[in-house]
Amino acid sequence: MFEFLEKYLMGPMSKVSTWRPVRAIVAAGMASIPLTIVGSAFLVLGVIPQAFPILAGIWAGSFDLFSALTLLAYKCSMGILTLYFAFVIGYEYTKIYQEEEGLDLAPLNGGILSVFAFFMTIPELTWTNGSMALVANETTINGWSVGGDSLARLSTSGLFTGILMAILAVQLYRLCVARKWVVKMPESVPEGVSRSFTALIPAFVVAITVILINGAFIMMGTDIYKVIAIPFGFVKNITNSIGGIIVIYFLVHALWLVGIHGANIVMGLVNPILLANMADNVNGADIAFAGEFTNAYVTIGGSGATLGVCLFMAFMARSEQLKMLGRASIGSSLFNINEPLIFGLPIVYNPVLAIPFITAPVVTAIIGYLGVKTGFAGKAIVQTPWPTPGGIGAYVGSGGNINAAILAIVCILVAFAIWFPFIKKYDNDLLKQEREAA
Hints:
The chain has 438 residues and is mostly helical. The chain has 20 helices and five strands.
C-alpha cells in the first residue's frame, strides 16, 4: 500500500507542491488569514443576538448603533479579498522567480501589475452595433457592478480571476525582463525611481494583452471574468459535493502517511473555495463546505481526527510509550496540532494505524457535511483561527449555533470509535514489547 501511495500519489503531489504558481497561491492564503479572522471577529458582533436572543435589546441600544462603522472591518477584508489575493500572489510569484532564476525583478512591481491586470477585468462592457459600451443599469454604474458588500467582482466571487490575472501579469513581467524589454536607468538614479521605470514597458504589455483577450471575449458576448468562472465554478461544485469532500480528505491523509504535509498542499489550494463559500453564506447561501469546516468537524485534534486518541493515550493507555507521548501531546492536540503523534507514534508509514488515520477524517467529513446540509447545524459564516479547540470552533464559526458544537462533539466521539480498536491493539503490542524487554 505504501509503495502504491509513494508511486502514484507522493510523486505527483510532491511535484504539484513545488510548482511556482501553487506556492504563490498557498502564500496568499496564509497572508489572508489575519484579515479573514479580524473581519469575521467584527461580523460576530452583529450575529451575537442570533446566538443569545436575551441580548437583542442590549445590542439594539449599543453595538447596533455603530454597526455601519464596525462592519467596515468585515466589508474591507472579506468584501475585497480578491484584491489582497491578487497583490500577494503577484508579489510572491515574482519573488520566487527573482530568487530562483536570478532575474532583476521587483516583487513590488509584480504585485502592482497583478492588481492592474485584475482591475482591468472588473468593468462590464458590451459589443453593440460595432462599438464597445460600458454596462449601465440599477446595479452597474459605468461598467462597475455593485453588489453584496462592495464592488461585486472584488469580493470572493472574483477570486479565481484574480489568481489567473496575477499569474499572467507576472509571466509577462518576467518575459519583458528576461528579454530586456525594460527602460534601464543610470546607476545614479534612486532605486525607487529606477524600479518604477523598469515596470513601464511591462505595464504596457500587461495592458495590451488583457485588452486584446478581454476585447475578443466581449465581442463574443462575454468577458474574461465570466469565462474564467465557468471551469472554476465546475471545480467549486465538485468540491462542494460529498464525493469531492471525500477525495479531498483522502488525499490530505494519504499524503501524510508517506511523510508529506497533506494539509498544506491540498488545503492550500482548497482554502480559496472555502473562503468564497463562507462569503456566499453570509450573503444568504447555504453551503456546508465553508469557512473552517476542516478543523471544526473533520480533523479535531489534528490530521486524522486524533483528539480522542490523544486523550486515550494520556489517561487510559497501559504502555509507558503511549502514556508518556499522550501526556506530552495533549496540550497541542487540544489546539488541533498533532505532529508529535504523527511522527511520535508514529502514524507515518505505520500499516496498523494507517486505516483509522484515513477512515476517521473521511467519516467525520461526511457527518459534518450532512449535519450542516440537512440544517441540523448552522452553516459557517465566521472564519475562526484553525487552532480553535473542538466544539468552540464550530460554535463560533456558525455564529453561535449550539447544534454546531454538538455536531463537533459527535464527530470527536465517532472518530475515536473508529480509532479505538486500532490504538488499543497498538497499545497492547507495545505493552507486550515493554514487558519482554523488562
